[in-house]
Amino acid sequence: MAEAAKPPYAVGYAKPPSNTRFKPGRSGNPGGRPKGAKNFGTAIEAALRGRITVTENGKRRRLSMREVIAKRLVNRAAEGDLRAVPVLLNEARAHQNLSSGDGVNEIFAGSEDREVIDGIVQRIRRGSDPSPLPEPDPDPLSDPRADETEAPE
Q1: What does the pLDDT read at residue 47?
Q2: Shortest CA distance to 117 belongs to which of 99, 134, 105?
Q3: What whole-number distance in Å separates Cα of residue 121 and Cα of residue 100?
């Protein structure tokens, strides 16, 4: 029997045989992700949109899983579950900030920021060409009196 050809180096930890290595220019996943495969976030979103039948006050109703979870969280917090209260308050605060839009006002609270934002909003509402911007000062740190003392060329 003939002996197998020996690799030019010792095969071992972090040194796989050359015939099992990834070949240059070829993907390690040639088939790629299958069509229709969903990521985890998409799967959770689909599960939350799913509807189930629940009995509420003796009546059967079909609610989304999201609604059922929200009702259970509110009920547990109302019963005094100390772990449910902070979760409920954090979610309520997050949704309150998103719907009111006050977060932008907190970020751009300065008067200069407000003036810039108001100018942009006015230009968008006009829908016409933006008004020409004033020429920027070439060197804002220079002494304004230095320009007066220079002789015109």
Answers
A1: 93
A2: 105
A3: 19
CA of 23: how far to CAs of 3, 18, 44, 77, 100, in Å?
25, 9, 37, 57, 55
Alpha-carbon dihedral angle through residues 140, 144, 150, 152, given to the nearest 10 degrees: 80
- Domain chopping of the chain, boundaries: 44-102
| Whether the predicted pLDDT of 3 surpasses 80 | no
Amino acid code (one letter) for 38? K
91-143 residue pLDDT tens: 888 877 665 555 555 666 677 877 888 888 888 888 755 556 666 666 666 66
**52-72 residue pLDDT tens:** 999 988 999 999 999 999 999
One-letter amino acid at 76 equals R
Q: b or e along 69-101 (b: 16 or more beta carbons within 10 Å of the residue's beta carbon)?
A: eeeebeebbeeeeeebeeebeeeeeeeeeeeee
> What is the SS3 string spanning 77-122?
HHCCCCCHHHHHHHHHHHHHHHHHCHHHHHHCCCHHHHHHHHHHHH
CB 64 within 8 A of CB 48: yes
